[in-house]
Task: inverse folding
């Protein structure tokens, strides 16, 4: 669908004006008078719109990059061709919402409800006396208008029941436990997506659409959990004895998902976990100084409070990994050398480091710069 808008330009809404509009809309949404919020083609990037009743609000063509909608009700709201990249939409209710042509790239929609939402292809055309500009958020190759862009989103336990998802792009997304019952999935792509806990028969898509997907843990990998757990025990002994007992663990290439929370709060300094499958693994408060995670798939992993001084994540997949209060310091080796954290070529967003801790402003700036560069993947 092509929608024409004449001489429309995005306007930044100030905090006071936004607060008035939200209060007036909530009166409208609850049948107490008020006025429906009209945010068409506005600039609301980074705005806090959490825990609001925004049912039927109009965000057509708005730029909402990085906005926070956590817990809000957005039933029948219009996000036609809106830019929702890297938004926090966790636990939102988007039932029957108009999401045609929107971009959610890198957004977090975990535990949200998009039942019966319209997510088909759409573009907007801006007409002025000088030129015609087409706003197209699809990521389809060859210039063909595609459906909604959910690439690299977190969609844990998200419900798409009876949603219209024709042409949608779920490439690289975390779809753990997602529900697609009754959804229309013509010409969709799940390339490289994580489909753990998803009924693949329910998707009813051709094999090509599932190329490179990560599915549930294989029986062979599950049976290997005890062996890997024993290796962690030996590594912890090795660390705690300064190398006099135990042995350093080399987990390279292993599927670590069956270990679940086995890493929590453990001293695992210098562990090698290159090219591992560690989606959603919990490393909370783990001592991982000098650890090697090069090439690992760590999407959705939890590094809250972990010490990652000198750790290497070269070319690792880190989208939606948590680094709250994680330490990114410089590791000082006994021989006098130093080792800085390395995220060269990693897939990660700068926002993921907002509450991380670095031992110098320069180091933190370097991490953010690496993340911003990688965000173009």
Result:
């Amino acid at each position: 669908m092509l929608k024409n808008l004449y001489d429309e330009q995005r306007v930044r809404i100030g905090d006071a004006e936004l607060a008035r509009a939200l209060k007036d809309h909530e009166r409208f949404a609850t049948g107490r008078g008020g006025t429906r919020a009209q945010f068409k083609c506005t600039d609301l990037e980074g705005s806090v719109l959490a825990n609001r009743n925004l049912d039927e609000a109009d965000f057509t063509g708005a730029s909402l990059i990085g906005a926070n909608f956590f817990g809000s009700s957005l039933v029948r709201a219009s996000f036609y061709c809106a830019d929702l990249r890297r938004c926090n939409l966790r636990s939102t209710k988007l039932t029957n919402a108009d999401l045609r042509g929107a971009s959610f790239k890198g957004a977090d929609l975990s535990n949200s409800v998009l039942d019966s939402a319209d997510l088909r292809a759409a573009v907007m055309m801006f007409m002025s006396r000088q030129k015609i500009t087409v706003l197209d958020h699809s990521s389809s190759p060859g210039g063909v208008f595609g459906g909604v862009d959910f690439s690299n989103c977190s969609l844990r336990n998200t419900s798409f029941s009876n949603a219209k998802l024709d042409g949608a792009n779920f490439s690289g997304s975390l779809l753990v436990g997602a529900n697609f019952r009754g959804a229309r999935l013509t010409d969709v792509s799940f390339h490289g997506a994580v489909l753990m806990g998803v009924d693949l028969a329910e998707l009813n898509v051709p094999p090509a659409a599932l190329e490179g997907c990560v599915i549930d843990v294989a029986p062979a990998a599950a049976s290997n959990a005890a062996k890997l757990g024993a290796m962690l025990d030996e590594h912890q002994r090795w660390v705690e004895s300064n190398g006099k007992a135990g042995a350093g663990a080399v987990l390279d290439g292993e599927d670590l998902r069956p270990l679940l929370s086995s890493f929590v709060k453990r001293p695992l300094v210098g562990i090698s976990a290159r090219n591992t499958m560690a989606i959603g693994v919990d490393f909370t408060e783990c001592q991982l100084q000098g650890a090697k995670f090069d090439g690992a798939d760590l999407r959705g992993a939890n590094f809250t409070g972990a010490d990652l001084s000198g750790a290497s994540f070269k070319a690792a997949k880190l989208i939606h990994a948590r680094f709250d209060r994680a330490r990114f310091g410089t590791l000082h080796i006994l021989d006098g050398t130093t080792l800085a954290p390395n995220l060269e070529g990693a897939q990660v967003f700068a926002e993921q480091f907002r509450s991380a801790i670095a031992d110098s402003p320069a180091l933190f700036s370097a991490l953010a710069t690496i993340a911003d560069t990688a965000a173009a993947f």
User: Anything to note?
Assistant: Confidence is low (pLDDT under 50) at residues 140-145. The beta strands are 2-6, 11-12, 42-43, 123-127, 132-135, 327-328, 331-332, 338-339, 357-358. The helical segments are 15-29, 200-203, 219-223, 225-240, 361-374.
